[in-house]
Design brief:
The chain is α+β, with helices and mostly antiparallel strands and 570 residues long. It is built from 16 helices and 26 strands.
Length: 570
């Protein structure tokens, strides 16, 4: 058994890289010869030989995806091709085409479970997690409604900061079952399967059947003929990625019959084990490529371009200001919302002479306000006084315009206001001013509608914002918000309380305040406070006197600024 436990780790060292020779003529139209070489090595035998004793590793081209030959990544098109089981991609066309990693497969399972579509090495677009069934028959017409979806695994998956990890448990019986709601229970399994592998990086056990599957040998194509070799390129991690969940039993409909299936999610693939299947087809690759294509293009087919920095439509305009710092207005064009909007920026009194970089505070206005609302309540003047008295450190303050958008990416392909703030505006500010362009030196706060915005933007973009301030947030219940909050599934991607229940909150500083007399919004703020307590998330909670009024926010500006200053650190 020790040898099986070494399996996932030993693959990382001393690997034999497979030379990918030019593709020979095949039945499918590969959009790049390297895709053909990679596909042929494992799947040519499945397609051409009888009795090969395994299913597809890549599978046929995904139906309907034939026209997708490039996708934007890191601001440039990269070659991709979708197959039933995965998506192949070429990230560096100038690299050695004979290297195993010249062709890679994306972390599609991660995107499907989290809803975070990756657009570059560091930027993401927030979409609803995939509602597609993870195994079994298609759910068209409700034929497989019982099966868990990718979204069902949000609370058991490991992607950030080692959440949901497990200690090594060699030879432990797998008795956990997960249902469509994501509820995990223990039951008497239909077949005794055990954990015999463990990945110390993602800290998850691996089922015995999947360990064996990763080690399988058989007929593979070497470019000129068939040889006996490792099916998964002598490197299962290259094909599967690392495990990101434990193995779970599920119920799903297969060929019209409800069955027990063992599933395990890896970074790149989903493996399933169906006891009722004949040998050697009990273990199969899930149709991740097909599912991802549907999620990206059919379910979220808004043709959303990767975010890019906003562009100035004119010079910055000085604003009369009684303090020692400098205040400017400027108008920028954002591709995410396809329009030009003004913003106001405060630069500390030593900005012109210090040459140093500064933290940045983004403060969002409310539903009835505009980009100068916070300034009208005294924010910039008070900040200037506190900085001048060395009571808080110098930092830049940005006041963007959000109209009545709720600062969200609106459903049904509407304007993407969250992307405007978290991507277009932030990129513009980092390029235009001497900022400290790090998530731990960026804070986002807001009042009323802006408090909702600061929470959902930061929760959906942990790579951009670490520090959150929600001042009297108007946290709407499902069905009570504007129509652009979308259906129940989409609403959950915008609702700060839903996000707080499912997201990794470990890295954030969070401030939450509400007025005692704010009867309309106090219950939901208290609900969020309780969710944070239940999850063990340390945060600042303030119940101040007052209601949902300008006087309330103006009277607490010093409190807010002192919080942001402390969160920025020295």
């Amino acid at each position: 058994m020790r040898q099986s436990y070494k399996f996932w780790v030993s693959l990382l060292t001393g690997l034999m890289l497979v030379s990918l020779l030019p593709v020979v003529e095949a039945a499918y139209n590969f959009t790049d010869p390297a895709f053909g070489s990679t596909w042929n090595r494992a799947d040519k035998a499945v397609q051409e030989l009888t009795g090969v004793g395994r299913g597809y590793t890549w599978g046929p081209p995904a139906p309907g995806a034939e026209g997708i030959q490039t996708e934007q990544y890191n601001g440039a098109p990269r070659k991709v091709q979708y197959f039933d089981k995965a998506r192949m991609e070429i990230n560096n066309p100038s690299a050695n085409p004979n290297d195993l990693y010249f062709v890679t497969t994306g972390l599609l399972v991660k995107e499907l479970v989290t809803g975070q579509r990756q657009d570059s090495d560091t930027t993401f677009t927030a979409l609803p997690p995939s509602p597609v069934q993870i195994a079994g028959d298609s759910n068209e017409g409700g034929n497989n409604a019982i099966a868990p979806t990718y979204a069902s695994f949000q609370n058991v998956v490991t992607f950030l900061n080692n959440q949901n990890t497990r200690p090594a448990a060699p030879n432990s019986l797998i008795t956990a079952r997960i249902d469509k709601s994501g509820q995990v229970t223990t039951f008497s399994p239909p077949e005794r399967r055990f954990n015999t592998g463990y990945d110390p990086v993602t800290q998850h056990n691996i089922s015995d059947v999947f360990v064996t599957f990763g080690q399988q040998r058989g007929s593979v194509w070497n470019g000129s003929g068939y040889v006996q070799d490792s099916v998964l390129f002598n490197n299962p991690t290259y094909v599967l990625g690392r495990p990101v969940t434990e193995a779970y039993w599920i119920r799903a409909v297969v060929a019209g019959v409800e069955r027990d299936i063992l599933v395990q999610l890896f970074e790149r693939r989903v493996l399933t084990y169906t006891p009722a299947n004949p040998d050697p087809y009990k273990v199969e690759m899930g149709n991740v490529g097909q599912h991802y294509f549907r999620w990206r293009y059919a379910l979220n087919g808004c043709n959303v371009p990767p975010a890019q920095a906003a562009t100035a439509t004119g010079p910055a305009r000085p604003v009369s200001f009684g303090g020692k710092g400098k205040v400017q207005d400027q108008t920028i064009f954002s591709q995410s919302i396809n329009k030009s909007l003004p913003y106001r920026v405060y630069l500390p009194r030593d900005y012109e002479t210090s040459g140093k970089r500064y933290p940045v505070l983004y403060m969002l206005h409310g539903y009835g306000g505009n980009y100068v609302e916070w300034d009208a309540y005294g924010l910039l003047g008070i900040a200037d006084d506190l900085m001048g008295g060395a009571q808080i450190q110098p930092f830049i303050i940005v006041l963007p315009s959000g109209e009545q958008s709720y600062w969200v990416n609106q459903a049904n392909c509407g304007p993407r206001w969250a992307d405007y703030v978290s991507q277009d505006l932030v990129k513009f500010m980092d390029a235009t001013y001497r900022t400290l362009p790090r998530f731990d030196k960026r804070a986002i706060g807001g009042l009323s509608m802006g408090g909702h915005g600061s929470l959902q933007i930061a929760f959906n973009h942990p790579e951009v914002f670490k520090i959150i301030g929600a001042h009297s947030p108007t946290l709407r219940t499902e069905g009570s918000g504007p129509s652009f909050f979308g259906n129940i599934a989409y609403y959950a991607t915008l609702d700060p309380i839903s996000l707080a229940r499912t997201k990794d909150l470990s890295s954030y500083f969070i401030w939450l305040d509400i007025g005692m007399d704010d009867s309309a919004w106090r219950p939901r703020a208290e609900e969020l406070h309780q969710v944070l307590l239940d999850r063990g998330k340390a945060h600042t909670w303030k119940l101040f006197e007052g209601g949902h009024l300008s006087q309330y926010w103006a009277s607490h500006i010093i409190d807010y600024l002192q919080y942001y200053n402390a969160a920025f650190g020295s």
